[in-house]
Amino acid sequence: MGDYGFRVADCRLKKAERMKQTTKDKEMMKEKIAQIAAKIKEGGNNVVFTGAGISTESGIPDYRSQGGIWDKYRPVYFDEFMSSKAARTEYWRRWVKDYQVIVGAQPNPAHLALAKLHEIGLLRAVITQNVDGLHQESGLPDEKIIELHGNTRRIRCMSCRQIIPIENVQQRLTAGDPAPECECGGYLKPDTISFGQSMPVAEVEKAAALSQESDFFMVVGSTLLVQPAAQMPIYAKDNGAFLAIINLSETPCDEICDALIRQKAGKVLQEIVKAVEKL
Ligand code: ZN
């Protein structure tokens, strides 16, 4: 009995400790949000960098994360796409499925919070690794969005480079054309950066320049594991920017950042923008 009583007491103690810890965590979170909001409100060059983690709350899977689709399917590399009709056919077959998910998705509270920051004049730009177009859908104008990996809602000819209306391509796919081609004979391809395809020079340069000029740089939902993503927060820090990271898992920049929040983006970004508006 005595032993049992001890365990109950022990358990109560642990519960009290846990509650104390939760309260402490909440206070720390409040503090970080206030700190981030104050920096944003200063109205310098506020640059936000987003990755797959911002779109998972919209139901778009994080393809590259563990357990993601690349664990099941080998990606179609760019040179395969350009040299084999079978590879192009496979690529388009997958695109049709992915595209259904993407056009069915809605911007979530995290995208909307960033659009709000733009609305109140406190957002210089969003640099994104995402190809889903949800920043545009949230109301952020094109000129504020730098897409490092392109956009899967856009179709381009790989020879004459012209953009082909997506409805046109969809019609042809539905009619049984497995890998549509351009009038010029070139291969059509969703305008995203495939594995083995070089990064878009203009976008990377623009992203680097924005990062180098930023006073406030916030990473949302990116593990910063690929280049050039990994370099952007370092450019920002070199300029003396305040670096905030909101991501569920560790990033290589956690140690150099000024405010780290390991949470899903939606609620946190909403709270940050609310805090900014109260200042
Ligand atoms: Zn063409």
Summary, kept brief:
The chain is built from nine helices and nine strands.
Strand content: 5-15%
* Helix segment tally: 9
Q: How large is the radius of gyration?
A: 22 Å
Instruction: Give a quick account of the main beta sheet: strands, pairing sense, barrel closure.
Output: 6 strands, parallel
The total number of structural domains is: 2
| CATH level-four homologous superfamily name of the largest domain | TPP-binding domain
Alpha-carbon distance between the termini? Answer: 57 Å
Structural notes for this entry:
The chain has 2 domains: 42-60 and 107-149 and 200-279, TPP-binding domain (Rossmann fold), CATH 3.40.50; 61-104 and 150-192, SIR2/SIRT2 'Small Domain' (2-Layer Sandwich), CATH 3.30.1600.10. It has 9 helices and 9 strands. The chain has helices at residues 2-41, 78-83, 85-104, 109-119, 134-137, 166-174, 201-213, 232-238, 265-278; strands at residues 46-50, 125-128, 145-147, 150-157, 163-164, 188-192, 216-220, 242-246, 259-261. The radius of gyration is 22 Å and the shape is globular. The mean pLDDT is 92. It binds zinc ion. Residues 157, 159-160, 162, 182, 184, 186 line the site of zinc ion.
List the topology elements.
Blueprint (H helix, E strand, L loop, with lengths): L1 H40 L4 E5 L27 H6 L1 H20 L4 H11 L5 E4 L5 H4 L7 E3 L2 E8 L5 E2 L1 H9 L13 E5 L8 H13 L2 E5 L11 H7 L3 E5 L12 E3 L3 H14 L1
Helix pairs in contact: 1-9, 4-9, 7-8
Bound molecules: zinc ion.
Zinc ion binds next to loops.
